[in-house]
Specification:
Elements lengths: L2 H14 L4 E2 L12 E15 L5 E16 L2 E10 L2 E15 L5 E10 L16 H4 L6 E11 L2 E11 L13 E2 L7 E17 L2 E16 L5 E15 L2 E12 L5 E6 L2 E6 L1 E13 L7 E13 L9 E12 L2 E11 L19 E12 L1
Antiparallel strand pairs: 1-2, 2-3, 2-20, 3-4, 4-5, 5-6, 6-7, 7-8, 8-10, 9-14, 10-11, 11-12, 12-13, 13-16, 14-15, 16-17, 17-18, 18-19, 19-20
């Protein structure tokens, strides 16, 4: 779909989504009325790079959202149009098992949805995310079934996923990063199971959250059909005191393949990463007290790294640091980020955790993203 056609489709849906649409039940004792909402977003981006030509300002995204409820049933979907491709973000339906009004809250969801791993909703505050996003362990969306339950200070997730959102590693036009099928590394994601636990508490003015996640699954070689193990685990913590937020996470992933690398893809392009690595993350964020024209200002520093655990001369550590602020005003949200990366994909590097002697230094870029959300 062309950008013009996408914009027309988004604009029509966006106008409908400016206010919720609801249908009331004739029997008022039957519970809450079914409801349906449409919305969307449009974003513009400018990027200055110290390793290549600048980009923009240009239209970066058109987005259509829809969600609804009918008794215990609910659904949510989001579709996105970027420059050159379009992709599903999520599309799932669910059923509320416990409503949480006077006790625990729980539900079950089926469809393309976020994989509940590590810090949620993301292990970052910036528009650019952290290293885990590009490795497929942060803000990843796959096809599966997930049960979740919140009871007091305790939260549980358990899920089973059939594979990536498209069921093929040959489609590089996607939002979240998944295993790619390339000529040199012809793999794709297959089934995996996941569990996650998180505990929250409050003491001495600090709101503390800590948790752990683990998954185990397989990937498939598309040439010979052989399956290889795919495992990962993470421990995470978050500490909030007034406007200050601290986050820390240590994750490890492993693809048990004969090669020391695996290919990933999103945003139309495949690239290679280390087949196994540790991924430490440390974030600091501060919500500036409201002053002046903006409704909210949050400044942050997101630091993360990919440290290959395999012994191969073709591997090397990758580092990413994002310093910036987000500015909110009504439906507008703007990110201003300075991204510095060493040996880091999307910041001038050859991949993540892989070595290129001709290009393993530091690169940086300034990214400004202005979005309007309806």
């Amino acid at each position: 779909m062309s950008t013009t056609r996408a914009f027309k489709a988004w604009a029509c849906a966006g106008l409908l989504g400016l206010a919720p649409v609801a249908w009331a039940q004739s029997d008022t004792d039957a519970g809450e009325a079914p409801a349906f909402e449409l919305g969307g977003a449009v974003r513009f981006n400018y990027g200055w790079l110290d390793y290549g030509p600048s980009s923009g300002p240009e239209l970066e995204l058109l987005r259509l959202d829809a969600r609804g409820t009918a008794g215990p049933a609910f659904f949510s979907l989001q579709y996105r149009w970027y420059d050159g491709f379009d992709a599903v973000h999520h599309a799932y339906a669910g059923w509320t098992l416990e409503d949480g009004r006077d006790g625990p809250a729980s539900d079950i969801r089926a469809g393309v949805q976020q994989v509940p791993f590590g810090l949620l909703p993301t292990a970052s505050q910036s528009f650019w995310f952290g290293s885990g996003y590009y490795l497929g362990i942060e803000d990843d969306y796959d096809l599966g079934v997930v049960w979740q339950r919140q009871s007091g200070a305790h939260q549980w997730h358990a899920g089973v996923f059939a594979g990536d959102e498209y069921g093929t590693g040959a489609n590089f036009d996607r939002y979240s990063f998944d295993v790619a099928t390339t000529e040199d590394l012809p793999y794709r994601e297959r089934e995996r199971g996941l569990v996650r636990y998180e505990h929250s508490s409050e003491a001495n003015g600090w709101e503390t959250t800590w948790g752990a996640s683990a998954f185990a699954g397989r990937i498939e070689n598309r040439i010979d059909g052989r399956k290889h193990d795919h495992t990962g685990a993470a421990v995470h913590g978050q500490w909030v005191r007034g406007p200050l937020t601290l986050q820390a996470q240590w994750a490890r992933y492993r693809y048990d393949t004969p090669e020391p690398r695996i290919a990933m893809s999103a945003f139309m392009f495949p690239f290679e990463i280390a087949a196994e690595a540790d991924v430490p993350t440390f974030n600091v964020a501060y919500a500036v007290p409201r002053t002046g024209w903006f409704d909210s200002i949050t400044c942050y520093n997101n630091a993360s790294a990919t440290l290959p655990t395999g012994r191969d001369p073709g591997l090397r550590d990758s580092i990413q640091n994002v310093t910036g602020c987000s500015f909110g005003k009504g439906p507008m949200l703007t990110y201003v980020d300075w991204i510095a990366g060493k040996n880091m994909w999307f910041a001038g590097g050859p991949g993540i955790g892989v070595r290129d002697p001709a290009n393993d230094g530091w690169h940086s870029r300034l990214n400004i993203n202005v979005g309007f959300y309806f």
